[in-house]
Design a protein that fits this description.
single chain, about 260 residues, Rossmann fold, seven-stranded mixed beta sheet
Length: about 260
Amino acid sequence: MPRLGRKHAAQGRITLDRMGLPAPGPASREDADLETASAGYARRFSGPVGGWFLELQTRTTLALLDDLPPGSSILDVGGGHGQIAPALLAAGHQVTIAGSSEASGALLAERLGGAGYRFEVADLDALPYGDGAFTAVTCFRLLPHSVDWERLLGELCRVARRAVVIDYPSSRSVNRFADRLFGLKKRIERNTRPFELFHPRQIREAFGRRGFAVRAERPQFLFPMVLYRLTGSVPFARTAEWPGHRLGLTQMLGSPVIVRADRV
């Protein structure tokens, strides 16, 4: 659930003071996955429209990782939401899911039945794995809510031998107006929380400082996802998104963006 942001100089973070929200305290242990792994968060992806969101996310992620041979080791950081792990398992990969507490893995047992994957409680800012321990690392729904996203990204890169796949909300999209729409969004989604926006250049540079190069960027939607949740209509959503894809507008202005970066 997006956290309409903490300030970050010139990087498009949405300010809290205009919404009457408390300013964040100093960085603490990463636990943003507790919310994304909750039943309330899962309800945001229920129903036909929620299923369509996840279908597109899954299809895009698998396409970005299609060069990995079956049996590759993949770490899904903060993946207690269970959005990515089932597809990775179905593709024949060895999947480990790292969560900040036992509570963040509760939904996994319901969705996956405890078979085929390994869930481990870990400090997400100091992962208990060696450098390059996994062929690839995935991390969804976490970066924009992180207490220290640079530190988190550094750990993702450190333990990835080959590639990292993340998603983030782009400041080049309609998200730039999110502070003005926060009240409406909260009334519709009910459990919306502040989130941070990122410019694509900011993400590329952050990966570059860690010896990775962005290989692919896949923006998903031209219009806000909350619009489609409000209508509840997949046909409407597909029709609304089609022109943007055809004209290249989604590639330029879409959000959230799924990114793959490779070690160089």
